[in-house]
Amino acid sequence: MTSGLTQSQASRAFIRLVDYLSLTKPAIVALLLLTTFCGMVVAIGGIPPLPTVALTLLGGGLTAGGAGALNQYIDRGIDRRMVRTMGRALADHRLRPMQGLLFGLALCVAGLAVLAIGVNPLSSILALAGIIYYALLYSVLLKPSTPQNIVVGGGAGAIPPLVGWAAAAGSLSLPAFFLFAVIFFWTPPHFWALALLKRSDYARAGIPMLPVVSGEVETRRQILLYSLQVVALTILLPLVGLGGGFFLLAAVLLGLGLIRHALILQRRGGNRFAWRMYRYSSLYLGGIFLALAVDALLIG
Description:
It contains 14 helices and no strands. By secondary structure, the chain is mostly helical. The chain has one domain (about 20-300): Farnesyl Diphosphate Synthase (Orthogonal Bundle), CATH 1.10.600. Helix 2 packs parallel to helix 8, helix 3 (about 50-75) runs antiparallel to helix 8 (about 160-170) and helix 6 (about 120-140) packs antiparallel against helix 8. The N and C termini lie far apart (about 65 Å).
């Protein structure tokens, strides 16, 4: 009896832990930490001291996860009306709203403290800007009010490489903002591909995503236009001192793949090609930043 009770308690505790972890949006955090680390490498042309890397990634992971939890707290009502998100812990009432809010705030405070004390104040200030951008500007103001929400709101996900750059170099320089721009222009085609897949969800929830407001044809056109812009931007990065021959080759090859997916989606439409665009665009961003980091190490 005691053993069974203990096992049941352990099972419930594990499920609760998984629910809290899900609030942080781990897959998104992983991609953000990749861009953070690559920003560090590119900033100094090498790998920073391991304690700096560890503290930066810890602080960045905590703040990004905390911002994700705050987003789910703010969006819990919307999430209940969407098939994609109705199973989230707050939307499904497995966690109380106050638990989600306090968890998100605690992660943010802990992450900011790690960055401010263990790394440098600038990295902490930038991480705070990312939290405010995502949790307040995007989640509260932009998402429910304009189809351009993801265009402007994309800046939130573009801040991590700035955090990494500041953590490694101690300051920001012009090339760092080109890393910001890459993610800023990448975000709309990536997210709109998902929005095409979940158009009925967003319509049901009353969220004015581009496919809901302007239709699928216009959304596919915008995905192609933004894809062309982000590919052009990456190819021009060597002109501002970001990347050399290796990166340029990778940017061209990865960019051709992105444009191919966007063209197929634009011409043929359908969920299958929207999903392929969404999946490839994630790999594309990771590949671009990894290529930048590898190139920096080769040159360094």
